[in-house]
Amino acid sequence: MKPTRRKAEGEEKISVITATLLMILTAGCDPVGYGYVNQLRRPVSVVHHVHGRDERFTLGAGERKLPAMGDWPGSREEFFDLNGKEIAALTGAQIKKLQHTNKNMMTILVLSPSGITLATQEYWDQWQKELRDGVQR
């Protein structure tokens, strides 16, 4: 029997909420990397430099990616357009200077037309509410 779209969306909502809760509960045990938000109207490539490796992924326009358990904060984060032109970059030291004083808040890098910032507590709270309510952007 083929699952319905509604069931698949509900399962995705539960898995995202479960992953977030597990990440928060076990943050003292495993490192947690950065989350990412692409507020541009075009997809971007992200290069996450960690322990001598380059991990690459694409974020679609408006897409968000939760921080991952077991991922280490990077030594450098770079954002490129799909033609390979660098849009913005931050070193790990620059990110640490930006980090929130609230240690319970995940580090979410937000790429917007004005550059890279960290998600605010209000943004994080709204994102969590949307995940709980099943609202997807």
List keywords for this structure.
single chain, alpha+beta, 4-stranded mixed sheet
Question: Could you walk me through the main structural features you see in this protein, from its secondary elements to its overall organization?
Answer:
The model has no long low-confidence stretch (mean pLDDT 78). The strands form two sheets. Strands 4-1-7-8 form a four-stranded mixed β-sheet, with no helix packed on it. The protein starts with a helix and ends with a helix. The radius of gyration is 15 Å and the shape is globular. By secondary structure, the protein is an alpha+beta fold. The longest helix is centred in the first third of the chain and has 21 residues, at 5-25. The protein has helices spanning 5-25, 92-98, 121-133, and strands spanning 35-38, 44-50, 53-59, 64-65, 76-80, 86-91, 108-112, 115-118.
Concise structural overview:
By secondary structure, the protein is an alpha+beta fold. Helix content is 30%, strand content 29%.
Q: How many β-strands, per DSSP?
A: 8
Fraction of residues in H or I helices: 25-40%
Order of helices and strands: HEEEEEEHEEH
User: Which structural class should the secondary elements be placed in?
Assistant: alpha+beta
Strand content: 25-35%
Query: How many helix segments?
Result: 3
Walk across the major sheet and give the strand order: 4-1-7-8
Oligomerization state = single chain
Specify Rg, calculated over alpha carbons.
15 Å
Largest sheet: 4 strands, mixed
The N- and C-terminal alpha carbons lie at a distance of 29 Å
Query: Quick check: average pLDDT?
Result: 78
Low-confidence stretches: none
User: Per the principal axes of the C-alpha atoms, what is the gross shape?
Assistant: globular
